Amino acid sequence: MKRLALLFVTCIALIGSGAAVAQTPTADTVVTIAETPELGQFLADAGGMTLYIFTKDEPGKTNCYGECAVYWPPCMADDISSLPEGFEGKLSMVPRDDGTEQVAYNGWPLYYWIEDTESGQTTGMKSVMSGTWPRSRGRTSSRYH
Fold first, then answer.
1. What is the reported pLDDT for 132?
2. Beta strands in the chain (DSSP E)
3. Is 145 inside any structural domain?
4. Pairing of strands 91-95, 40-45
5. Which of 65, 104, 116, 139 is 20 to 30 A (C-alpha) from 44?
6. Residue 143 covered by a domain
7. Can you give the residue range of the structural domain that contains 42?
């Protein structure tokens, strides 16, 4: 049974903008930033699709599988780019149980929200779903840095 919790977009300050949702590994997936007046800057893929984190994950370990991963597809890539110059933090890859690797920011696995269908959407902020999907406070949030 699902536990209900408020979902928030992962707002992590970055610089840049970016290419389509990468729900299967692709060599050209990059993490960059997007920005809205309401939320400020947040992580996005190269196509501008918003990226989220899951607080029930741990740095270096994903806990979103099964139904969770249907609604919150992991951000996958064969290779990752570095963060834009001047941005604190690090991109890495986190192994999943099926042997694939998921993109992570400072060890925290990154996800898409199934209802974000266009660049710049942050509908995960208004969604209620299994788990806790908080907003990171960018450079000032030590929890996600």
1. 55
2. 5-6, 31-36, 40-45, 91-95, 101-105, 108-109, 128-129
3. no
4. unpaired
5. 65
6. no
7. 1-137
